[in-house]
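Here is one chain, start to finish.
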Amino acid sequence: MLMALETVTAQWSARLDGYRAMLATNHQHYHHRQAGLYWPSHLIGLALALVLGGLVLMSLGWVL
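Its structure:
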């Protein structure tokens, strides 16, 4: 049970690292453009973070 939890946590942290890298490149990419293009990418990142956080909490609750 604990091994499964560690595996799930490792998978999610790897995915989150990937999303963080994508958001960092998006941030650099859009920062040099109009603010109208920058803010949607920021909001999309925020929405992704909230959804992923909810999924992580749900999966942790389900495993435990």
